[in-house]
Please model this.
Amino acid sequence: MRLYTFDDYRLGAQADDGRLADITDLVSADIAPRDRMTALITHWDRLASQVRGAVRSPSGPALFDVTVRAPQPRPRTLLAAPVNYLRHQAEMGGDGGVYADADIKTIASYAGFVKASSSITGPDGAIEIPFPDRRVDHEAEVGVVIGRRASRVPRERALDHVFGYVPLLDITIRGEEDRSYRKSFDTFTPIGPAIVTADEIPDPADIAFRLSVNGQERQKSTTRHLIYDIPRLIELYSEAMTLEPGDIIATGTPEGVGPISPGDQVVLTVEGVGELTMPVVERP
Ligand code: MN
Model:
């Protein structure tokens, strides 16, 4: 199932003919529009069969006729894995690296950090560059959306807590400030266009993805190269904090990160999950 948030934060599920089944009414009318996806995921066990029924006879608009928003506009917690690919570690600290000669460690040392949920944007938005004189990089990542509350979950059972996957960009200002600050500017976490439910992804340990800027390929990898794979990330983070339905984990970026500037167009393609196209603009 491919799940969307569109127009006035309505909920949609994609049918085979490319139209959307409008499933907004499956969640309570009392729910704030931006929290509807969280509600859908929270009650998924009860609602999934109704969503499947709606997809068989879609009543909603065609996808190209709507404004596609971030599919999950407001996770309670947005977590991210720092330096979770060895070749990315090498490029950051190596000769000519962003932090040349610095002692760059890996996720085994850094564990994780939190991004502000307010940094999320979607295909309807743009990556806004806040300071013209500072380097801002793209980081191509696979986002994991939590489905069932996870507290101290061992890796063997971790995938039972995954709702789905989403293309995710972890946009970053380089510099000396804390990661959470540098990666939490408004628009610095584009996600979408859809959340794809876990049943559609045959092997989360080998999700291929690639990123291009202005048509030129910059990053290409697969989750096979993660230092901490997805079950290990859920084990690690749920040991510290309770993960709730709708929370998102950014799993880390491979080698090939590089600067972006106003006027660029970034395209992230995650195999079997979707393609996210984002323009880059100066902050208005
Ligand atoms: Mn990252």
Remarks:
- The domain at 78-282 is CATH 3.90.850.10 (Fumarylacetoacetate hydrolase; domain 2).
- DSSP finds six helices and 19 strands in the chain.
